Amino acid sequence: MKIDPKSSADLSAQIAQAIKDAIVEGRLIVDERLPSEAELADQFQVSRPTVREALKRLAAQSLIRTQRGAFGGAFVNRLSFEDAYSQQITTSTLLLSMNAVSFDTACEARFALERACAPLSAERRTPDHLATMRAEIVRQNQPGLTDEAFCASDVAFHRALVDGAGNPVLSYQLAGAVEAMQPLMNMITFTARSREAIVALHTRIADAIEARDATAADAALAELTAYTLTLKDDVMAARAARDKS
Length: 245
Hints:
The chain is mainly alpha-helical. The protein has helices spanning 11-24, 37-44, 48-60, 81-97, 103-124, 127-140, 147-163, 168-189, 195-210, 214-244; strands spanning 64-67, 73-76. The chain has two domains: 11-76, Arc Repressor Mutant, subunit A, CATH 1.10.10; 81-236, Up-down Bundle (Four Helix Bundle (Hemerythrin (Met), subunit A)), CATH 1.20.120. The protein has ten helices and two strands, in the order αααββααααααα. It is elongated and about 65 Å long. The chain starts with 10 loop residues before the first helix and ends with a helix.
């Protein structure tokens, strides 16, 4: 593992990347103990605080874990999809909040991925997935439900649809799309949306998934996509009109 001390890149970031590359390439394997801070400082010819910062970066990415005691140290972590979900959500949220991804692009990607899940979910969904979808529809129909609670229910409904596909890779990819993009979509469109229309579409999706009708589920998701984009256009047009007045 090497770094370039002449590079303008932060030394701790270079060290973290070098160790990450070694993990990804299999030169450092799961549960293997990394060299001590002193050994890494000597290897990279940097200070121990610089090494410590690099290890913090790796721990934040769940690539390593630390243990205390006589047999402690930093070890290569066994990363799971569940561990990676929060990172995916955080990254997606930052990209959206910084306007690195447009609403239309995010919406297109999110629903394209979700529609890819629909046939699998129709085939593989469990009673628990269906029960969650139905429970969220009931919740969304409750009088006086706050916008925040409606948004949370909306996310839970779509996560159940996605997780019903029984494919952890798709669930991981959609963790950010649903749990980061869906709240943003709701935040932008909540003043114009009809809860009744959304609940009706959710009901059609749940009915189709229960009936194992992938075509009907896809059609309802396509309508939900079009409805979401129309709402966004209406909200943006109203804002533009207010700004001119």
